[in-house]
Amino acid sequence: MNMKSNNLIPFICYGAGGHAAVVESAVIRGGEYYICGVADDGVAPGTRLIHAKVIGGKDQLGKFLENNISKMHVAIGNNFIRCKIISEMEKSGFSIITVKHPDAIVETKAKIDYGCFIAAQSVVGTRAIIGRGCIINTSAVVEHDCILENCVHICPGAHLAGDVKVGEKTMVGTGAAVIPGISIGKNCVIGAGAVVIKNVKDNATVVGNPGRIIV
């Protein structure tokens, strides 16, 4: 357990994949937090993200609570797994934090719930509402008055125009575009590069330009 602080706030990172490394990079740039340990049941202890090391799986987390370290960020790209782990960790006594890259732009009156990751060069427009556990990935744009429900992932370079609504656990793929005023249901997949010009029902998969539902 890394207990060094240098006046930074310690937290545990849950997840040790590529997305977690992106989160650590944002943390290093941000200068507010530091990762004091990484938990992942599927990665060998001692494995590094950038500087932070995997300390083991869930069975190691009690040690942090015993040392009054209760902040955690769940750095898992899969929406369903991330949402499940956030709920489990909250019940275990952890406080789930949002991580924002210093090069991200969050405009006036935007609201971001806990457990989110706001990546480099991303934009969250004025009066947008971002639910808990969402990822706004690198260079993604969520424009004014958009509403994202819990555990949505807006992938790198995807653009949501104004007043778009996205249901929980939906993924909007890399480079996709959604025109103003569209509603996308929950548990959807919007494919990479898709252009969404019509409302999308729950559990649908959309591909192409213009976007068409294939599932």
Query: What is the CATH homologous superfamily assignment of the largest domain?
Result: Hexapeptide repeat proteins
Percent range of helical residues: 10-25%
The secondary-structure element order is: EHEEHEHEEEEEEEEEEEEEEEEEEEE
Helix tally equals 3
The assembly state of the depicted protein chains is single chain
β-sheet strand percentage: 25-35%
Strand order of the largest sheet: 6-9-12-15-18-21-23-24
Q: Let me know the average pLDDT.
A: 96
The CATH class assignment of the largest domain is Mainly Beta
Low-confidence stretches: none
N-to-C CA distance: 46 Å
Rg value: 17 Å
Please state the second-level CATH architecture of the largest domain: 3 Solenoid
How would a crystallographer describe the biggest sheet? 8 strands, mixed
Tell me the number of structural domains.
2
C-alpha geometry: globular
User: Strand tally, please?
Assistant: 24
Summary of the model, kept short:
The protein is α/β, with parallel strands linked by helices and 215 residues long.
